[in-house]
């Protein structure tokens, strides 16, 4: 068991401070300091953060920053940016930040500047995108490509889908974009419904090019294409491209490596939406839009690398998240974007945060004696308000919230946007300030209903208030959360860049497939799994 963190002075100071602050109400903290709403704010890379509605004071922030310092966060940040092999369990560097380094920058890994390679792939992607959108690249029968289907899962799907949805306003509406991820055939069947194979391009996105779901869907796609094009195998070359680090497997699948866009093992799957994995994003918003997005990422990277810890947005958000997880016992964190275009942002963040920080051993392999990554979840506002906000306002769990809102709507129709924004401001205020029994009584509420209508308040939130959703802002926003995750991972002394936790299920599923396909195979699982498999065998129709 590793107790090093909880035995540190910085941790103990926070524990002591927590006993002093835990019962203080945000109402009082705001009443005591009229400048609070301006004091605890920060601007970086096009984002404005108001973190004043958190259960903290200036002293809390000092102690949290001291904890980050005692975990040598600045050194760890530098180790990541400079390409040290900080993903120790996989013996890899972690250089997603090099994917957005500007042309001409230098990021040396294994004695080689990787930035020219990054831009070489970006340039090839741009030229491919231009050929598709101009119609120069034609399908096998000479038709223009009008449909793009991205096949991938996890980091090879969630980032691309999220970015496509987020940047739809900027996208080429002549291209129909679909995304297939689940091994459930329904996903493939519904996503290809109504598409003409002669006008359809499949992007097979897989870092390893071995993932069961993706390879199954890619094989089904190939059969679907050939079926629609009279079985002519040479059609594959015009209708399939691959995004991968595994050229050999791409070739073995039958995709010409000329039609492959590569990346490197120093890019983790959930950190790859700005690599070749972003080809669907580039097809949607064009090469210039994609470069703008990369510039946003880079701006946030530079801020994270250079700003002092107490002025550093990812550090502050990471520390506040940790403050609630480790000192208030919060288990989850809600991400609530008040923008329909960010409807998939919470799902994207789930992989980023939970696959990264869902760990229970330290870098040295010892069981941690403290909680690590929180459960991230959310829905776009105002839909969530009519669903689960009840629990956030009046339930027994403390759920810190991140509100994400934009001053300008990309679809300014009537007074929708003022109403949307009134709601996000109201939610933050209601959560923090609540409504006392006296206030409820003053409204003439009968005494028996008073307890039901009281809002305790003192429920924390951050508000990111951004000018407008653009490709650049999306880049900054994603980088903000990436670095937030890293900040927490460093303090918890875990590895945010491996994902061994997904392996066991994969392994067992592989072994179960033949057991489902032949009743002759003897079952040797636990009695529940055996019985379920037996029931499946007898119930399935073919
Ligand atoms: O891109 P690949 O290699 O198909 O992997 C897909 C996803 O599978 C995982 O390895 C495990 O779920 C993720 O980390 C990754 O994003």
Automatic annotation (TrEMBL):
GO biological process: gluconeogenesis; glucose 6-phosphate metabolic process; glycolytic process
Transmembrane feature ranges: none
UniProt enzyme class: isomerase
UniProt-listed Gene3D superfamilies: 1.10.1390.10, Glucose-6-phosphate isomerase like protein, domain 1
Single GO cellular component term: cytosol
Keywords, sorted A to Z: Cytoplasm, Gluconeogenesis, Glycolysis, Isomerase
Catalytic activity: alpha-D-glucose 6-phosphate = beta-D-fructose 6-phosphate
Pathway entry: Carbohydrate biosynthesis; gluconeogenesis; Carbohydrate degradation; glycolysis; D-glyceraldehyde 3-phosphate and glycerone phosphate from D-glucose: step 2/4
Keyword Methyltransferase attached: no
UniProt subcellular location: Cytoplasm
Family per record: Belongs to the GPI family.
Protein name, as recorded: Glucose-6-phosphate isomerase
The organism of origin for this protein: Rubripirellula amarantea
Lineage start: Bacteria, Pseudomonadati, Planctomycetota, Planctomycetia, Pirellulales
Gene transcribed to yield this protein: pgi_2
């Amino acid at each position: 068991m590793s107790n090093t963190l909880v035995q540190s002075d910085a941790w103990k100071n926070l524990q002591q401070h927590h006993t002093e602050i835990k019962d203080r109400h945000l109402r009082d903290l705001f009443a005591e300091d009229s400048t609070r709403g301006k004091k605890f704010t920060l601007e970086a890379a096009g984002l404005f953060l108001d973190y004043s509605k958190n259960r903290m004071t200036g002293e809390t922030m000092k102690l949290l920053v001291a904890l980050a310092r005692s975990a040598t966060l600045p050194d760890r940040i530098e180790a990541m940016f400079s390409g040290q092999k900080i993903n120790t369990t996989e013996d890899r560097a972690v250089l997603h930040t090099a994917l957005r380094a500007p042309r001409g920058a230098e990021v040396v890994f294994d004695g080689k500047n990787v930035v020219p390679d990054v831009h070489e792939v970006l340039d090839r992607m741009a030229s491919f995108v231009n050929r598709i959108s101009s119609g120069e690249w034609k399908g096998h029968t000479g038709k223009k490509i009008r449909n793009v289907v991205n096949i991938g899962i996890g980091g090879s799907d969630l980032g691309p889908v999220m970015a496509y949805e987020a940047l739809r306003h900027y996208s080429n509406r002549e291209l129909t974009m679909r995304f297939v991820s689940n091994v459930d055939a329904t996903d493939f069947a519904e996503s290809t419904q109504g598409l003409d194979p002669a006008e359809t391009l499949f992007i097979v996105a897989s870092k390893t090019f071995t993932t069961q779901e993706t390879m199954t869907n890619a094989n089904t796609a190939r059969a679907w294409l050939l079926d629609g094009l009279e079985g002519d195998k040479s059609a594959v070359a015009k209708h399939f491209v691959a995004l991968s680090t595994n050229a050999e497997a791409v070739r073995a699948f039958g995709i010409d490596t000329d039609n492959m866009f590569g990346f490197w093992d120093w890019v983790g799957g959930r950190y790859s939406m700005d690599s070749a994995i972003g080809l669907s994003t580039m097809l949607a918003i064009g090469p210039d839009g994609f470069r703008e997005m990369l510039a946003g990422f880079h701006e946030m990277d530079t801020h994270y690398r250079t700003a002092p810890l107490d002025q550093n947005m990812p550090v502050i958000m990471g520390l506040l998240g940790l403050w609630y997880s480790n000192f208030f016992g919060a288990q989850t964190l809600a991400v609530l974007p008040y923008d329909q275009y960010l409807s998939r942002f919470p799902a994207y963040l789930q992989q980023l945060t939970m696959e990264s920080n869902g760990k229970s051993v330290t870098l040295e392999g010892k069981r941690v004696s403290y909680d690590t990554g929180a459960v991230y979840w959310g829905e776009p506002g105002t839909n969530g308000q009519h669903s689960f906000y009840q629990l956030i306002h009046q339930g027994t769990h403390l759920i810190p919230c991140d509100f994400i809102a934009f001053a300008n709507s990309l679809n300014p129709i009537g007074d929708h946007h003022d109403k949307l924004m009134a709601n996000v401001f109201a939610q933050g205020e209601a959560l923090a300030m609540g409504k006392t029994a006296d206030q409820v009584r003053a409204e003439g509420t009968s005494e028996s209903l008073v307890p039901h209508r009281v809002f305790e308040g003192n429920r924390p939130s951050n508000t990111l208030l951004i000018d407008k959703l653009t490709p650049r802002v999306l880049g900054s926003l994603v980088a903000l959360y990436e670095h937030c995750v890293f900040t927490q991972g460093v303090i918890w002394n875990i590895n945010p860049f491996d994902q061994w936790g997904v392996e066991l299920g994969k392994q067992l599923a592989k072994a179960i497939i033949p057991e489902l396909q032949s009743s002759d195979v003897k079952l040797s699982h636990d009695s529940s799994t055996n019985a379920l498999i037996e029931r499946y065998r007898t119930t399935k129709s073919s």
